[in-house]
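User: Can you model how flavin-adenine dinucleotide sits in this protein?
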Amino acid sequence: MSSPRTSDVLVIGGGIIGLVTAWRAAQRGFGTAVVDPAPGGGAAQVAAGMLAAVTELHHGEQTLLGLNLASARRYPEFAAELTELTGHDLGYRRCGTLAVALDSDDRAHLRELHALQQQSGLESEWLSGRECRRLEPLLAPGVRGGLRVDGDHQIDPRRLTAALVAACERAGVVFHRVRAERLSVAGGRATGVVTPDGTALAAGQVVLAGGSLSGRLAGVPQDVLPPVRPVKGQVLRLTVPPRYAPFLNRTVRAVVRGSQVYLVPRENGELVVGATSEELGWDTTVTAGGVYELLRDAHELVPGITELPLTETRAGLRPGSPDNAPLLGPTELAGLLLATGHYRNGVLLTPVTGDAMAHALATGELPDEARPFTPRRFGAAALSEQPA
Ligand SMILES: Cc1cc2nc3c(=O)[nH]c(=O)nc-3n(C[C@H](O)[C@H](O)[C@H](O)COP(=O)(O)OP(=O)(O)OC[C@H]3O[C@@H](n4cnc5c(N)ncnc54)[C@H](O)[C@@H]3O)c2cc1C
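Assistant: Here's the modeled complex, given as structure tokens:
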């Protein structure tokens, strides 16, 4: 890098996706900078941190499953590398997940998920209600059955974020703690950004990793702007006093009256209960209705939660995309790459995104596993090729 205002790679957005991209780029020898008024903030401050490739499987998302599994496989090594480098404990727990059903509709839904998992060659085991309660004695007596998925783990996203900031600092990443006001384009190429006070930050390549705000950056040509929208999620944090530990041994989740609810127990006694899913623009208000529904549904699953102190309520924005999958790699604008749209799996997808983006920055191409996630799948040319 010739000056602090010039870099080989400039990453717009210091959420987990921008941070992992910057870290991996710096490790490859790129002079790297991140522009974000509050690096280390973003959706990961709210997220539960489930690494749930198998229990998050949905019909029509088999391509995304491949990327989710690739990232899940990388997690042990990724977490070990970050911890060794930074000394941070990431709260990575290979505790498994139990998805349960409370009534016959839920059970039918879970049976369908089980069939889809089996067709996809995934490991999950059907358990009776009694077997579920043997694993998790505090489950409600009405639990009718469930799926045991030992391969779905968890990490503490706040610790992960702090470790990524530390790893970036050690790798020499420069942080500009300011908003990017507009993308600079010259000669048909992205050349950097301009900040609100008119400062130009120049770069050989620019990565747009602005989470749910990625589609709003001025200066990005209309046909390159990512089709990303905010999907609000409210989350509660409770604390398990030592006398109640272990309250739950693994993540417990269910669909109650059509809404997802999960309880994620951390080793430090935190119990995360989430999450609502609301299409309300950039609103991050915590509402009485959201808190009520989460507590009501979680209480149906595990009645004992009403004994626990409620320590935090918070809402965050998932960066949703039209097919629920991320947009990764080069765009039609030379010099501009995207790393956004990770929706409800951004924490899970952090390791594979870092690797794919570093590869794309170094070679101009995505690695094979990430190719289906090119932003070009939403471009005008791709859309005009689709059957009417
Ligand atoms: C309630 C909830 C629960 C979740 N649970 C899970 C889970 O269990 N497992 C999982 O894998 N994922 C989960 N997620 C999803 C995951 O948190 C997100 O996919 C991920 O954090 C997105 O990261 P990001 O870096 O792309 O975006 P963000 O976290 O939104 O970060 C974007 C960053 O870009 C910055 N920025 C934006 N515009 C600009 C600009 N113009 N200039 C400078 N900076 C800019 C912002 O300040 C921000 O820091 C959850 C999300 C929510 C909300």
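A couple of observations from the model: The chain has a mean pLDDT of 95. The first helix runs from residue 16 to 27.
User: Helpful, thanks.
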